[in-house]
Design a protein that fits this description.
Helix content: over 70%
Number of strands: 0
Number of domains: 1
Radius of gyration: 25 Å
Structural class: mainly alpha
Distance between the termini: 74 Å
Largest sheet: none
Length: about 240
């Protein structure tokens, strides 16, 4: 029974589930887009001095990466929903067919939490007297699963796809206004600065040390940039023109 004063499920979803999930999905798409495109355009730029080729390669990578990331977000979330439903159906079946075993599992969960004696028995009786409450308890406490929203796959796909586009465009901006060699330095500087800032803010919003998270995200971007530049420099000078 829900309190008329406070909706706990809504509070958990809004304050802990929804916002944290959206932040995670945004950073996933944004960071992946920025780091991948930065590595690609530095590799192309190291192999050629043609700004047009670099920009074309960058935009091609941007949209291919964004569509791919959106598709991965959609299919992975669909798989998450499918797994939840399969476990939900299995728990329903066990509660119906083997209630004694499921009741013993409720007992064990609260026993491990430190409850004993009459109070423990009352808790188990209360939970198992309502099949919906019982089922929700087994899904949350025993399996550690939270029910995903039915429209979450589409939401995740859109968020990851758009954030990947935004992230991918950041290292491309200098190439729209500067010569290739100067733009390479600009792309690295802007990308690393933005990566650090996002890592710093992420730690502020979640957990972790802001400076450590910022530097960690910046190092990941720096490694991708170095690998992309190295591949372009080596192949650009060794392959026949």
């Amino acid at each position: 029974m829900k309190s008329k004063y406070f909706d706990m499920e809504k509070h958990v979803e809004e304050e802990h589930g929804g916002s944290a999930s959206r932040l995670r999905e945004f950073i996933l798409g944004w960071q992946d887009g920025l780091v991948n495109v930065l590595g690609i355009i530095l590799g192309v730029a190291a192999a050629t001095s043609d700004t047009r080729i670099v920009i074309i390669a960058g935009f091609a990578a941007t949209f291919a990466e964004s569509i791919s990331m959106a598709a991965v977000a959609y299919t992975s979330t669909k798989a998450e929903i499918g797994y939840y439903q399969s476990q939900h159906d299995k728990e329903c079946e066990w509660i119906e067919q083997k209630p004694d075993i499921e009741r013993a599992e409720v007992y064990e969960v609260y026993y491990r939490k430190g409850f004993r004696g009459k109070l423990l028995g009352q808790i188990v009786k209360k939970i198992t007297s309502n099949k919906k409450v019982w089922l929700d308890f087994m899904m949350n406490e025993e399996l550690g699963l939270q029910k995903p929203s039915a429209d979450k796959p589409v939401q995740d796909a859109i968020l990851v796809g758009l954030s990947a586009v935004i992230g991918s465009l950041i290292p491309l901006v200098p190439f729209l206004f500067l010569p290739v060699k100067t733009a390479m330095l600009g792309a690295v500087a802007i990308s690393l600065a933005v990566l650090f800032a996002v890592g710093f803010v992420k730690a502020k919003k979640t957990v972790g040390t802001p400076w450590h998270e910022g530097l960690e995200m910046m190092v990941v971007g720096g490694l991708a940039a170095a690998v992309g530049w190295l591949v372009g420099a080596v192949l650009g000078g060794s392959l026949p023109g």
